[in-house]
Amino acid sequence: SPILHGWAHVSPGPLSGGKVTMKTLWQLRAENALRWLRQNEAIIVERGLPYLAYVERLPAAIVTNGLGQAMATELAAAKPGGEGSSREAEAHRLLYEGVQQWLCRDGGVYSAKSSLLEAIVEGSQDDYLWAQVEALAWLEWHKKFCRAYLTKNGD
To answer: What are phi and psi of 102, to 5 degrees?
Structure first.
């Protein structure tokens, strides 16, 4: 699906009778953040993953340490056998993958890249700043959806 100037998405909408509709970048973020949660919700709930707690903490880590360090920390915490339990590692992995799939999607900051951390270190300063803003904006939606659909039972 094409992205126009990085701000809008054009596609035929189901309620538009096949007419082309335009989605804002905010709508795309919200749609993606909700879809990521819904795709992984059963795993998060069934295994009692502390996912919501990590989603709530990641924005502050990004603001404090920068996107690269925050995501490197998430990936390190996602390694099985590292500090913490396998439930914690899985929650970190899902969160890392959620941010990565948003930033590395077609039309994303690091379009068509498969590794977020490699894209960050190989990319420009402008792309890094854009990616940080995009990650925070995506997490804003994702956190709201997680609070709405998940409980803190696993946290």
So the answer is: -75, -45
